[in-house]
Specification:
Length: 433
């Protein structure tokens, strides 16, 4: 009897603790040391079917969250994979359910331990001084618009692929003393609507124009990071009268400015596919003849050149890149890129050349060095093509900056942007804008 009572007492202690430890939903917070210490929040939710989902926030780099593509949790072991980040996390939940000890893998491995976020000590995901509103830009499509306030001419920040306007939560407010600062989260991301269609470059540019019209923003300066360069070029090339200037933050690549001498596999293959689709029944002989001649003389030779260059790139490709399953919006945006060749407005284009670092991902030192050299040479060729093709542009190269130039080289970007904006202001005041 005593043995039975003893086991009953043990079970009474262990069962509630075990069950509670199995429920890991909620916010967890920890610090990742990658030379720079980053505060990380891991948000875990349990669906109606009991399946777990995870979203990871690096709140010192912005409040954008990255959803895990897969989550497994068994015997107190947690594993989450983040394809967009080419990263994963493996951790072990403590018996009391209050901590996770684990490893973050991205390029290399780093210790990342979490504690449950208590109400009194929880980190805020969004402490940036902005208001949030939602603006209708299309049928059943509303975009999240951040307003950091300020007075003066308007600046509108547009994020890169996979990010939201919150990526600028720390950077954008630095301009509010002289300008009225906004940020727009494009359709398909964050809290903006996620429609099935509407991801072509010009449609995304039209979304920006719709926000400007709704808020009565007159001739702002658009500031775009990465893929947002296509929205800048779409607006600046089609409606130069509606913007005072454009700032490309490592964003003036082929999707923003196409140079035939450089070519681009994505853009050129889109053109070829579009023309091949027109070769079907119903095309008049005259149109058919023109299409065939264009394909033979221009499009297919250019595509062959692109493929040859891509083959060279693949010689230095990493050997350990996991297969990625991108969500539909990023794929649709890439498929909807356009060729922009004329941008007749004042432009500041900041490039990270040479880029800082490059993950080894299974490559030996010689292969990695060759890959870096090739990547930097291609970026430099694009920068030169942009300088030549856009006479209104000031092109700035920031050595050893990373792709997020406004965080890796904040001071440099602030200096260049402020000088550019002041120049636009003087031109406006003198009527020379």
């Amino acid at each position: 009897m005593r043995k039975m009572l003893l086991w009953a007492g043990v079970l009474a202690i262990l069962i509630p603790s075990s069950l509670w430890a199995q429920d890991i939903s909620g916010d967890w917070q920890g610090t990742l040391d990658l030379g720079t210490k980053l505060r990380i929040i891991l948000h875990v939710e349990k669906g109606n079917n009991g399946a777990l989902t995870c979203k990871l926030y690096s709140i010192d780099q912005g409040t954008d969250g990255f959803r895990a593509n897969s989550v497994t949790f068994k015997d107190l072991s947690l594993e989450a994979k983040f394809d967009l980040l080419m990263a994963s996390y493996e951790g072990k939940v403590s018996a009391d359910g209050n901590s996770i000890t684990g490893t973050w893998t991205q390029r290399g491995k780093a210790q990342l331990d979490f504690r449950r976020a208590a109400k009194e000590t929880a980190w805020s995901r969004d402490s940036s001084p902005h208001t949030v509103q939602f603006i209708a830009v299309d049928t059943n499509v509303k975009l999240e618009v951040l307003d950091w306030g300020g007075s003066g001419h308007a600046l509108i920040f547009l994020a890169g692929l996979g990010n939201t306007a919150h990526v600028f939560d720390k950077f954008a407010p630095k301009f509010s003393a002289k300008y009225h600062v906004y940020g727009i989260t494009r359709r398909g991301f964050g809290d903006s609507s996620i429609p099935d269609t509407g991801y072509s470059a010009d449609r995304l540019g039209d979304d920006v124009l719709a926000v400007m019209d709704a808020l009565k923003i007159n001739r702002p300066v658009l500031v775009g990071h990465s893929i947002a360069g296509e929205e800048l070029s779409s607006v600046g090339s089609r409606h130069p009268e509606k913007v005072a200037g454009l700032v490309y933050l490592d964003a003036a690549y082929p999707y923003a400015f196409y140079a035939a001498a450089q070519g681009d596999l994505v853009l050129d293959s889109i053109d070829v596919k579009r023309k091949l689709d027109q070769l079907g029944p119903g095309t008049s002989p005259q149109d058919l003849k023109q299409l065939v001649q264009e394909l033979l003389k221009t499009d297919l030779p250019q595509l062959e050149k692109d493929l040859q260059e891509t083959a060279k790139d693949l010689e230095y490709a990493p050997t350990t890149i996991p297969k990625m399953q991108l969500p539909a919006p990023p794929l649709a945006i890439i498929a909807g890129e356009e060729k922009y060749t004329k941008i007749p407005v004042p432009v500041l284009a900041i490039y990270a050349i040479p880029h800082s670092g490059m993950p080894a991902m299974g490559r030996d030192e010689a292969t990695l060095a060759a890959a870096k050299a090739r990547d930097n040479a291609k970026s430099e060729a694009q920068a030169k093509a942009f300088e030549k093709g856009v006479p209104t542009a000031r092109v700035v190269r920031l050595p050893n900056a990373d792709h997020f130039v406004f965080t890796s080289n904040e001071g440099d970007v602030l200096r260049e942007m402020n000088a550019f904006l002041e120049g636009i202001g003087k031109g406006r005041d003198s009527g020379r804008e």
